[in-house]
Design a protein that fits this description.
The termini are far apart. It contains seven helices and 31 strands. By secondary structure, it is an alpha/beta fold. Bound molecules: guanosine-5'-triphosphate. Residues 6-13, 23-24, 52, 54, 79, 82-85, 88, 108-110, 221 line the site of guanosine-5'-triphosphate. Residues 3-233 form the Nucleotidyl transferase domain. InterPro entries: GMPPB_C (IPR056729), Mannose-1P_guanyltransferase (IPR050486), NTP_transferase_dom (IPR005835), Nucleotide-diphossugar_trans (IPR029044).
Length: 356
């Protein structure tokens, strides 16, 4: 079976981490974020995947090559200008080999999902649907596309980001398309699947099915979600065959070192050759490769970029530190503060709750 993976977004909400690396390639539990989904797709029977790239396109081929490392055939199709979700699907379909009624799996490159992809494909084929969407259940659907369905699973409406969502079933960003339906998407201009393609198919009376499954699901769009996803992989709440070494809820990658008096926990990832000094406290955080947390520093729910340094006594809560930046002793970064790559914050006693 063939699939298309959408990985062309700029990932603006995850800046500064995404200034140098596209969001789907950010390291999560020691591998690029999208690799967790690739493996699940392969295990569900996908053999050939077309990557729909745009932003920093060449980095995907550098990371995955022809796919043989993962037992997949990977092909890359690049948009000169981002074409939106459905425009990207249409554009990438030039590299598909299947035809007619064949099912094509569409994945977003920034989702972590434990749902049963094979069951979704089976539901699609059983219903002879035009499109079958995975729907997940959330507590508050206002930030998502709310998708009510009839008892037989047929989608009744698409209500995007509404103050009054009709249901807490939401579009989870994983679709099965009938191949011939992809061919109907207009070419040469940006097209949104959520705002244009799905409502258009519904209006035309095409059968669109909602496959509801409330397995683990996370849209890794923001720093807080990034930290949560990494934590859930380290703790095993999000199952991934790539993660095998979680011990006491801490993922130590090759060459990572943690001083015995440091307190590290809550699903923290300590990247390759990263270091945590004596008496430091690191909780539910992600240290990219070669990051350093010096003795006595305090890091909670934060991301420390590649080679970045948190100096003795600094305090970080819900912060994002760009690659190679330094947070000098005494600084407090809280409430979503972000430090841009390479910035050197001198030792001081300043409390930042905004970007630096
Ligand atoms: P933000 O800028 O923070 O909203 O992130 P994003 O650019 O990744 O957008 P969003 O989270 O809505 O994208 C969902 C998925 O679709 C991600 O995997 C993106 O890489 C991908 N995507 C979004 N827009 C495009 C596009 O125009 N072309 C392609 N090929 N992929 C896209």
């Amino acid at each position: 079976m063939e699939a298309i993976l959408l990985v062309g977004g700029k990932g603006t909400r995850l800046r500064p981490l995404t200034l140098s690396t596209p969001k789907p390639l950010l390291p999560m539990a020691g591998v690029p974020l999208l690799e967790h989904q690739l493996i699940r797709a392969r295990d569900a029977g996908v053999r050939r995947i077309v990557f729909a790239t745009s932003y920093r396109a060449s980095m995907f081929a550098e990371a995955f090559g022809d796919g043989h490392r993962l037992g997949l055939e990977i092909i890359y199709v690049t948009e000169d200008e981002p074409l939106g979700t459905a425009g990207a699907i249409r554009n990438a379909s030039s590299a598909l080999t299947c035809e007619g009624d064949a099912p094509v799996l569409i994945l977003n490159g920034d989702i972590l999902s434990g749902h049963d992809i094979a069951a979704q494909i089976t539901a699609h084929e059983k219903a002879a649907a035009a499109v079958t969407l995975h729907l997940t259940l959330v507590d508050d659907a206002r930030r998502y596309g709310s998708v009510p369905t009839a008892p037989d699973g047929r989608v009744l409406a698409f209500v995007e980001k509404s103050a009054n969502p009709p249901t807490n079933q939401v579009n989870a960003g994983c679709y099965v398309f009938r191949r011939s339906v992809i061919d109907e998407i207009p070419t040469g201009r940006p097209v949104s699947a959520e705002y244009e393609t799905f409502p258009g198919l519904l209006a035309a009376g095409e059968p669109i099915i909602g496959h509801v499954e409330a397995a683990y699901w996370l849209d890794v769009g923001t720093p807080a979600a990034f930290v949560r996803g990494a934590r859930d992989l380290a703790l095993g709440a999000m199952p991934s065959s790539v993660v095998t070494t979680h011990e006491h809820g801490v993922l130590l990658l090759a060459g990572a070192s943690v001083e015995p008096s440091a307190q590290v926990g809550g699903g923290t990832t300590v990247g390759a050759r990263a270091r945590v000094g004596a008496a430091a406290q690191v909780e539910s955080s992600v240290l990219f490769d070669e990051a350093v947390v010096e003795p006595g520093a305090h890091v909670v729910r934060s991301v420390i970029g590649r080679g970045a340094r948190v100096c003795t006594g600094a305090v970080l809560e819900d912060a994002v530190i760009g690659d190679g930046a330094t947070v000098g002793a005494g600084n407090e970064l809280i409430g979503g503060a972000r430090v841009w790559p390479g910035i050197d914050l001198p030792a001081t006693a300043v409390r930042f709750s905004a970007d630096v």
